[in-house]
Write a structure and sequence with these properties.
Strand order of the largest sheet: 1-2-3-4-6-9
Structural class: alpha/beta
Distance between the termini: 23 Å
Radius of gyration: 19 Å
Largest sheet: 6 strands, mixed
CATH architecture of the largest domain: Alpha-Beta Complex
Low-confidence stretches: none
CATH class of the largest domain: Alpha Beta
Number of strands: 9
Mean pLDDT: 94
Shape: globular
Length: 259
């Protein structure tokens, strides 16, 4: 992987780890940050070796959202949403590998949306989620209006966006917004264990699960059932399925290759 200015990227054993790396700015995202994130997402999409993407932040925050002090926009906030935030969410959702987000601190605004876009979301006990747009007279973006009602229901999502109140990691777990809250000292170990588990899993099946859940949320039961049939046909033709069956018969652990 090439070197970046606003993010750190590590790749090993199928795990691509993207760390937002502007800790002095609480990992606020300026245009350069967004361009670098988009570049990594393209790399993961096209990679033949990547099997899981992990996203986290450096320092004491996951991300404080858009960098309002950067002064790198043209004054048209809609342009930035259309050309950066929207493509990031679309590319994340379309990736052929699972996404694990590791929330090491506050996740605010667009950073909140990015945090909650993971397939599996881990958060440390001191983390919180905040839709801060209303506090400066803006509306939620970066996929917030699509993600939040699906995660927590319309009533809670709308109140979160309209009131601009912090949602603690513990409350987020209770509401079903995230998968798990972990003590801060154990967060990295827990994230590493899950990342390795995902990297060693049946990658094609993971991709089909990601696509299937997104499809089912926006379609009827009949359409979702038909999509499941199509996905199962594809999964059943994979090398990983053949290996899974062989391992079951031989009473051993399956060694999946992601094919």
């Amino acid at each position: 992987m090439k070197a970046y200015q606003d993010i750190l990227v590590e790749e090993r054993a199928g795990i691509v780890k993207l760390t937002l790396n502007r800790p002095d700015a609480l990992n606020a995202m300026r245009t350069r940050t967004l361009e670098e994130v988009l570049d990594v997402l393209d790399h993961v999409r096209d990679s033949t070796s990547a099997r899981v993407l992990v996203i986290t932040g450096a320092g004491r925050a996951f991300s404080s959202g858009a960098d309002l002090a950067a002064g790198d926009g043209n004054g048209d906030l809609g342009y930035k949403v259309e050309h950066y935030y929207n493509p990031i969410l679309e590319k994340l959702m379309a990736l052929p590998v699972p996404v694990l987000t590791v929330i090491n601190g506050p996740a605010v605004g667009a950073g909140c949306a990015l945090a909650l876009a993971g397939d599996i979301v881990l958060a440390c006990t001191g983390a919180y989620f905040l839709q801060a747009f209303i506090n400066i007279g803006l509306v939620p973006d970066a996929g917030s209006t699509w993600l939040l009602p699906r995660l927590m229901g319309r009533a809670r999502a709308q109140a979160m966006m309209m009131l601009g109140d912090r949602i603690s990691a513990q409350q987020a777990e209770a509401w079903g917004m995230i998968y798990e809250v972990v003590e801060g000292v154990s967060l990295n170990d827990r994230a590493e264990a899950l990342a390795q588990r995902l990297a060693n899993g049946p990658t094609r099946a993971y991709a089909l699960i990601r696509q299937g859940v997104r499809y089912a949320l926006d379609h009827s039961l009949t359409e979702a059932l038909a999509a499941e049939s199509r996905s199962q046909r594809l999964a059943g033709a994979s090398e990983d399925f053949a290996e899974g069956v062989a391992a079951f018969k031989e009473k051993r652990r399956a060694v999946f290759k992601g094919r």
